[in-house]
């Protein structure tokens, strides 16, 4: 395994591998695609291209904090949207007209693979003459309105760390094919040079993880990941450090100033990818359809349970979407996480509290109707569909209760609560 030996041959091999990845994604989406080292990096590039500093961007408060920090790093003001409490998609009708009129862009999340209402958002953005961005990190196989998620926005970004499981890599797709070269140039200007040590850490990561997992050393696995700089948060949200953040925001747009926030869980997010990394990502992407089929089957199983949200949007084929995680809605999420963890089913990708509660009005416009986001964030138990059978067994055995219906959040006239799936 030759890692980090840079030369003309290696540059040629890297270019070939990048082009192959881009061609695969172009085939899936029908759009021009540029390989990026991470989804967050691709989003930064897109936001910088379309949005002048100071612009206001509508986004979901139930989202990874890293994305929030990317918006800040691009010099933009996040505006938190009201959400549908059952799947955390943007509730278009609940966004006040005054807010629509103040926006310069909309960013979707497609949380856990459940699509945001892209056709409606596209129509709104067209009417306002503003760009739509799709964060398709969780939604590489999802569809909405007869198109893949990622084929609605002026630009969309994918993470190859999620379904593809490559633990690195992303794709920036653009609606206007003429922008491909511009995007490539912007990426090249912002990429940090490749580091042999980073390539080595990437190469050995699966072996290190497998070794400690094989020995059932969960704590050791966690410490190893920390040492490799691959995980660093102890709570769901990373510490905000508001004073330091305010200093960084004053320098925005500036990715380097926001690096301590943007890099969390992935220190290589802006590093030029080496050929070994590109080769592994390519192999993972080649197996994507297999993974998506397994995710769809697991999603169908989880959606047939009493903890399933009733309104999860189906794909256009009438089948379940191949979700990245299935947000079951349970009464006591933390208790459910504990019983699952005891049986080796690890739950991640929690986004609680919502971003406006986490960061406050200094750093974001808060949602005009925050209750639904809070309800979803508190009750959603994101289960990996690839572990569906084991998870259902544990939840049944433990007698985990579904969350009470959030009807009263959207319908003040509603009678008392009933179980969510009922
Ligand atoms: C919704 C969402 N978008 C984007 C990202 C960033 O993806 P990446 O790690 O490839 O930058 C994440 C990371 O988990 C995410 O959860």
Order of helices and strands: HEHEHEHEHEEEEEHHHHHHHEHHHEHH
Kindly provide the radius of gyration, computed on alpha-carbon positions and rounded to a whole number of angstroms: 21 Å
- Identify the CATH class of the domain at 291-410: Alpha Beta
Number of strands: 11
- The geometry reads as globular
Strands of the widest sheet, in order across it, are 1-9-8-5-4-2-3
Low-pLDDT ranges:
none
| Corresponding CATH superfamily of the domain at 291-410 | Aspartate Aminotransferase, domain 1
Bin the strand percentage: 5-15%
* First and last CA, distance: 55 Å
CATH topology of the domain at 291-410: Aspartate Aminotransferase, domain 1
Please name the CATH architecture of the domain at 291-410. Alpha-Beta Complex
Helix content: 40-55%
Secondary structure layout:
Layout: H1 8-29, E1 32-36, H2 39-50, E2 56-59, H3 65-73, E3 77-80, H4 97-102, E4 105-108, H5 118-128, E5 132-135, E6 143-144, E7 147-148, E8 155-159, E9 170-174, H6 180-190, H7 196-214, H8 218-227, H9 242-251, H10 259-262, H11 275-286, H12 288-303, E10 326-329, H13 333-342, H14 355-359, H15 371-379, E11 380-383, H16 388-398, H17 407-410
Parallel strand pairs: 2-3, 2-4, 4-5, 5-8
Antiparallel strand pairs: 1-9, 6-7, 8-9, 10-11
Pyridoxal-5'-phosphate (PLP) binds at residues 38-40, 63-64, 66-67, 109, 135, 137-138, 159, 161, 170, 266, 269.
